[in-house]
Amino acid sequence: MQMFHLDAKHPTPLYHQLERSIKFAIATGKLRIGDQLPTVRQLAVDLRINANTVAKVYSELERSGVLITRRGVGTFVHERPAEAAFSRRDRDRSLRELADHFIAETHTRGFSLDEVIEHLQNRRKK
């Protein structure tokens, strides 16, 4: 079973889809801190995309502290150092801002808050 799914017909660029898919896998626990990701070449073959696209995503995620690459060993999910750098109050404020933005965006697309909550609960179960 493939962990990452991309849709070539979707208007979102493939590298954004892959980046979002990797972050989603981490956020939902499908990938945990220390887990090894496929090599750039292997993931490109599996997803039928250009290896440069995978390399770009891995590089961006490494720069942001999500992944770490150990030369000759592989690419791994890294601890999230940004979490430790924020106080509880800063984390709460940041989460509130994200939630407000998300709720406003879903509302403009015609979804009720109950629909959004139900969808998120179902996604969490998966």
Task: Record keyword descriptors for this entry.
single chain, 126 residues, mainly alpha, Arc Repressor Mutant, subunit A, 3-stranded antiparallel beta sheet, 3 strands, 59% helix, globular
If you had to describe this structure to a student in words, what would you say it looks like?
The protein is mainly alpha-helical. It folds into two domains: 14-81, Arc Repressor Mutant, subunit A, CATH 1.10.10.10; 86-125. Helices cover 59% and strands 8% of the residues. It has six helices and three strands. The chain has helices at residues 14-27, 40-47, 51-63, 81-85, 88-108, 113-125, and strands at 36-37, 67-70, 74-77. Strands 1-3-2 form a three-stranded antiparallel beta sheet. The radius of gyration is 16 Å and the shape is globular.
